[in-house]
Design brief:
With 204 residues, this protein is of the alpha/beta class. The chain has two domains: 1-75 and 149-204, P-loop containing nucleotide triphosphate hydrolases (Rossmann fold, 3-Layer(aba) Sandwich), CATH 3.40.50; 85-147, no CATH class. The chain is 28% helix and 27% strand. α3 (91-101) packs across α4. The longest helix is centred in the last third of the chain and has 16 residues, at 163-178.
Length: 204
Amino acid sequence: MLQGMNLACVRGDRELFRGVNFSLEEGGLMQVRGPNGSGKTSLLRMLCGLSNPAAGEIRWRGTAIRSLNGDYFADMTYIGHLSGTKDDLTVIENLLISSALAGFEIDMQEASEALEYIGLGSRQVLPVKVLSQGQRRRVALARLLVCKTPLWILDEPLVALDVMAVKLIQELLEQHLKQGGMVVMTTHQEIDITAASITQLQLA
């Protein structure tokens, strides 16, 4: 279970949100919504342990994440709004390295199969700098196919994707949730996902 308890976020002299509470169970999806500047990305960064709330606490399986250290990060996969790919590396090198940095060593065959599934099979040896924005996004999202973490935190995962890619990601998310995984995501696009429970967290 992932819990947020009375969370507050302050940026400079501006309070983005206060008193945010939620509880996410296995098989559950939480969509974080709100206008630009409402703190959606800031909240996700808190959930990833990349920043601290101004007030409140985030708990994973009943324990504050700040006291779990590596145990929490081993259970969580974060893909930010920016794809985070390296332009001079090939598509498959990006997937191999990003997976290794996240603590999941995969071999060439596993990487190749993931890229094939996500529609990049013919582009595996191309440098990322020649890809479109949508294709770069697919490279980043391919990591979801090889990670083994129960908690996925995704900031605008559908940005720049075409209709076919959105359908692939929808199927991938539904499969993860069906297996007891959890997803926290922001998106400006409508996506119809089947889950055991769906929570809409609205930021002002």
